[in-house]
Amino acid sequence: MENLLVMSYIFTFFLFIGSFLNVLGFRMLDGTSVWNPRHSHCPSCGTQLTWRDLIPVLSWLFLRGKCRNCHQPISWLYPLGELMTAVLLTFVVWHGGWTLETFVNLVLFVIVITGTITDLRAKLIPNALTFPGMAILLVLRLFVHPEPLWDYLLGFVVGGGVLTLLALIPNGMGGGDVKLFALLGLGLGWKLVLLALFFSCVWGTVVGLPLKVSGRLKARQAIPFGPFILLGTLTSWAYGERLWDLYRNLYL
């Protein structure tokens, strides 16, 4: 019961982190500063939002997805980003425990979640996210590395290199995906980043194939790959080592 109460507090905290990541992602796309203007505002009429409008998920529900002032629709990506952040980061803490490695993983998933938000919004994972993210993870990995440091450096090369080859294929990966996987290599190491790529493709097929069969997704129609990268990374991080050991025992 005590653990459940602690996790509920953590979940609530991460809802507000998700609200911040929404602002971070959208302002990166707009090319504006995260800190200026300091106050959030309605993207339609520019009205400054009050605390009543900034309660994660609940404000959007109470306002029925519309601005209090101009009544223009507020994107569903706002509550989705908040919920996605809270659920995934709470799972990371629950699964990883209270360790320095969990902190590194939280930073990693914060970056990937932000990239997912921008990809859903504009089909773009900006350099303003991936390049600083690489620098932050590199510094963290210098001090926190359960595996040898070279494992993560090789992961950077493997993650970016494999995706660079795939990007050369027509209708292959985009440049933002390549940089994000290089970043993931720093966070996961070379084995898990390969599994993250594999699971990302699996999740993309699981979702994309029914859409194609039903006709909702047209031939060669591009869809954001960021959400599948997020799911693939989570699958690899949480269960990849077990699957890798199982594969090694069965076939190697």
From TrEMBL:
Pfam families assigned to the protein according to its UniProt record, in alphabetical order: A24_N_bact, Peptidase_A24
Prepilin peptidase A24 N-terminal domain residues: 15-95
Main location: membrane
Topology of the protein relative to the lipid bilayer: Multi-pass membrane protein
Classification via InterPro entries: Prepilin_IV_endopep_pep, Prepilin_pept_A24_N, Prepilin_peptidase/N-MTase
Keywords for the protein's UniProt record, in alphabetical order: Cell membrane, Membrane, Transmembrane, Transmembrane helix
Cell location: Cell membrane
Annotated source species: Tumebacillus amylolyticus
This protein's record includes keyword tRNA-binding: no
Transmembrane segments: 6-29, 100-117, 124-143, 149-169, 181-209, 221-240
Protein known as: Prepilin peptidase
Chain ranges of the Prepilin type IV endopeptidase peptidase domain: 106-209
Protein family according to the UniProt entry: Belongs to the peptidase A24 family.
